[in-house]
Structures are given as structure tokens and as C-alpha cells.
Amino acid sequence: MATRSLLAPKVDIPKPVYSGLGIASVAVILALWCLLSYGGLVRSDFLATPGEVLAAGWERILDGSLWENTRASLTVILLGFLFASILAVPLGILMGSFKAIEAVVEPITGFMRYIPVSALIPLLILWIGIGIEQKIMVIFLGTFFQQLILISDVSSRVSKDLIDCSYTLGATRRQVVWRVLLPACMPGVMDNLRVTMGWAWTYLVVAELVAANSGLGYMILNAMRGLFTDVILLGVFTIGILGLLTDTIFKLLRRWLLPWSADF
Amino acid sequence: MLELTDLTVRFTPKRKPAVLALDNVSLTVEDNQFSVIVGPSGCGKSTLLRLVAGLQEQTSGTMLLDGQPIEGPSAERGMVFQSYTLFPWLTVRDNVMFGPKLKGLGAKEAGRIADDLLDSVGLAQFAASYPKELSGGMRQRVALARALANDPKILLMDEPFGALDSQTRQLMQELLLDIWQKHRKTVLFITHDIDEAIFLGDVVHVMSARPGRFKESLPVDIPRPRTMEALTSEAFMGLKRRILGLMHEEAVKAAG
Ligand SMILES: Nc1ncnc2c1ncn2[C@@H]1O[C@H](COP(=O)(O)OP(=O)(O)OP(=O)(O)O)[C@@H](O)[C@H]1O
Ligand SMILES: [Mg+2]
After folding, report:
1. Are B110 and A187 in contact (CB under 8 A)?
2. b or e along A57-73 (b: 16 or more beta carbons within 10 Å of the residue's beta carbon)?
3. For the whole model, what pTM was predicted?
4. How far apart are CA A103 and CA A166, in angstroms?
5. CB–CB of A134/A72 below 8 Å?
6. CB of A145 within 8 A of CB of A109?
């Protein structure tokens, strides 16, 4: 029975089994890492040992530089993401439900979403310099157009019957937009904000490519020059953990803000 | 009184041939009457109801409700859809209060209306639940209460029980009749189900295959209050046979 539920698609498995499998997958990777590094199977300047990474981390926690870099990166990520979301959520909802707005925004979005953000960096430097604005702009451009597409899709999927029904209950167009369309979009919006938050993190190194003097991406790029693989891995892990953390926050936020929406 | 005269609806979809959904349809629905429309799939029943709801415009023809032309949707013409259309972010009670609140009633007054109606659809104890916690039948009962909360002149129902299992469906029909007896609304009800049509209706209008027209209107002379036993009575069977015959002719015609 137990093996049957493990092998059948879409069948729930017991919670301990689920957690156990998760822990096992992490443990295997850690073990492999230990084997490769401590076992001397890989040259030590290619792969730092777990101990070295921990030591590098401890040292940078003590001198405050890890926190300094984390704070710099968080500022860039959160501001870029915030500005993108503030614009993309309302615009996306309107775009998905009003053909005229879709007609205006669609061509630009359709084009921009395929441009690698890194290709725009020279222009960004030329236009807005090399300050923090440029880094925020990289995150903004990396997330905004994706959010727009995803959220407009959420909006266009709101059931036509739900809208029609609101009219027969006496709602005006304005009321339909504010009291029906908007709340109906919220679960989808939250889900996609969560997804694009993850993507925002992946732009971090690109954002800190130019003229940075702090940040996790900067820390990694800087360590690359000296082949300090312990610091590189420290940066990678920190980003990964922060990403996981923001993801969890979004998950909890959705559960807390939208208790009415079907579970996912 | 609802008077529909010479209604024609022609759909002209992009890159597809035009569809004549309704062709010169006329219908009169008396006040407080329970009118049922049956007809083959695709004959334009929903289109007709959406016209009356104001959700769609006719190509030609006139629609009058109590002598006033119907233009656009309004709270005086409430509708219950086949799909589940409760607002998932509102509790059951807030769903029912939606219309009265839009009208500008205070929370207290709207709440009283909602509580009364939830009581009559037997869902008072679910007032604080969210729609996701309700079964299909319960959702449609709330949708009915919500439509009634506006005290509409006419209640439009487009196969409201179509998605329910037959047992729930039967219970819903009895409940609907109960409520109708109490509130005495004008009802225009669409269904595929001939038993349902006869059980509920004062009159059953049979539509022809597309383009939809009214083929015949049959009064239902079965005394109310009707119970399940009515379903096996002689009058019921006779009427059913006639409607089946009419529908069969249409099905044959539609099959070409
Ligand atoms: N928006 C639309 N655009 C184009 N054609 C449409 C549209 N709405 C309905 N039709 C067509 O008009 C005809 C009547 O549709 P309608 O939904 O009114 O039928 P119906 O009698 O309610 O059918 P059913 O019993 O299956 O619900 C159908 O052929 C349908 O394909
Ligand atoms: Mg229909």
C-alpha cells in the first residue's frame, strides 16, 4: 500500500514520508559535497569545504559585512520589486479586462519581456547613472513585464458569469471593477507576486554587476577574482535562504490575507 | 408584466459565419407567473434570458417590463446562473447583502434582509461561512437568496440546478416552489428537464430548434402546492408526453 501511494500520480503521501524525503535529498547533496571537498576528489581552489564556508560566514557575521551586504541587496530587491508590483498589479488587471488597455500595452510588453535585462545595462548606465537607482531599475525591468503578463492573464480569466451576475445585482461598471474584478483577481495576483519575487532574486547578480560596493551579488563577483570559493558559496547560500524566506512570507501572507480562497 | 415582441438576435462572431440565435420571438409573462422555457440545446434560451437581464442587446425587437423598455442590466431583474457565481471573498451573509448594500441600505437593514432570506433557504447556520465551504446545492440556494434580496420584479433562472445531482435537484425544486409561494415573484425559468419544467411551471413554453422561436405554450393545470406525487399524476404524464413529442420533432429537425 505504502509503495503504491508513492508511485501513483497525484496521491497524497504521509507527512513524515514527505518530510523524510525532503531531508534525505538535502542530506545526499551535503554528503556529496563533503565527499568531493574533504575527500580531495576536487581541487580545493575549485570547491571550498562546508567548514570553510561556515568559517567564512562566521567571520563576516562578526565583522558585520555579511549583514551590510544582505541589507544592500534586500534594499535593491525589495524596492525594485515593490515599484514593479505597484505598477504591474493595477495595470495588469486592467489590461486583462479592458481590450483598449490591452491593445495599448500588449505590443510593448510582448516585446520587452524577451529582452534580457543585462542587455539594457549600458543604456541604463547612460540614462540613470551607476547609483542604486540603476540597480533598482534592473530588478524593476526584470520583474515588471513578467508580472504584467501574468496578472493580465489572471484578470482575463475572471469568470464572465461572475461579472454579469454583479450587473444583475445592480452594480455599476465602476462597482464591478472595484468590488468584483479586483477581489476576484487577488489570489492569482498573490500567487504571481510570489513567483516573480523568486525571479527578482535571480536578477540580483546582474543588478550588482556594475559599480557596486556592497551587496551579496557584489560579494560573489568580488570573491570570483580571488577564486574564494568559500565566499562565493556563502553568497549563494545567503541568497538561497533569503529567497526561501521571502517565498514563505508570501505563502503565509496569502493564507492570512485571503482565507476565503480555495487552498492551493 | 414582461412583454417581448419580435425579438431577433444575430451573432456576428469574427472569422465565423453569423448565427441567427433568435428569430422574431414574442413572449408575454404575466405578473406573479412561473413561466418555464424548454427547448433543444443551442436554440437560444440563454440568449433570451440574457436579453431580459440586459446583459445583451437585441438586433431588433422590443422588450417592456411593466411598460418600461428594458435597457441594460438592473437590480429589478435578478438572475441565477447555472455556474456558481457567489463571490468567494464574501461570506454567505455578505453575498446576500451585496445587492441591498449597493442600493444604499445600511448594514443593519441589509443584514436583516439577508438573515430572513437565509432562513427561508435553510442556510441560517452557514451565514458566516465562505462559499468554498458549501456544496453545489447550498451555493445555488445562496445565489437564489442573493437574487431575491433585491426584491426584483422578475427572477430569471438559467438552468440553475443543471449542475446538481438529481436528488439535490429535486429538493431544490421543492424549496424554490416554497419560496415562490411565499414571495410570489414573476419567474422566468429555463431548463432542459421536462419533469422539472412541469413540476415548477404555471406555463411551459416550448422552443423550436435554432433559430429559436416559440413553438407552443402549454398551461400546467396541476394544483398547487405540488408534491412529488404530482410527478406521477395523469395530468402530468399527459403533459409530459406532449412536450416530449414537440421536443422530439425539434430534435429530428435539428439533426437535419
Ligand atoms: N456570444 C456569442 N457569439 C456567437 N454565438 C453565440 C454567442 N452566444 C450564443 N451563441 C450561439 O447562439 C445560439 C444560441 O445560444 P444559447 O446559449 O442561447 O443556447 P441555449 O438554448 O441556451 O443552449 P443550451 O441549452 O445548450 O444552454 C447557439 O448556437 C450559440 O452557439
Ligand atoms: Mg443555455
Report:
1. no
2. beebeeeeebeebbebb
3. 0.90
4. 26
5. no
6. yes
Nearest CA to ligand 1 atom 14: B44
User: What are the extents of the domains in chain A?
Assistant: 62-257
Confirm or reject contact between A180 and chain B (CB < 8 A).
Answer: yes
Question: What are the grid coordinates assigned to B242, written together?
Answer: 406532449
User: What cell was used for A263?
Assistant: 487552498
Residue-range domains of chain B with CATH: 2-76+153-255 (3.40.50.300), 87-151 (no CATH)
Q: Whose CA is nearest to atom 1 of ligand 1?
A: B11
The residues with which B189 forms a beta bridge, in sequence order, are B36, B157
Distance B194 CA to ligand 1 centre (A): 20
For B203-214, the pLDDT digits (tens) are: 999 998 888 889
Nearest in space to A236 (alpha carbons), one of A72, A41, A53? A53
Pick the CATH number of A62-257 from 2.70.70.10, 3.30.70.60, 3.30.70.1520, 1.10.3720.10: 1.10.3720.10
Ligand nearest to the CA of B41: 1
Distance CA B21, CA A83 (A): 48
In this predicted model, what pLDDT tens digit does every residue of B153-176 receive, in sequence order? 999 999 999 999 999 999 999 999
| Distance in angstroms (rounded) separating the CA atoms of residues B85 and A159 | 8
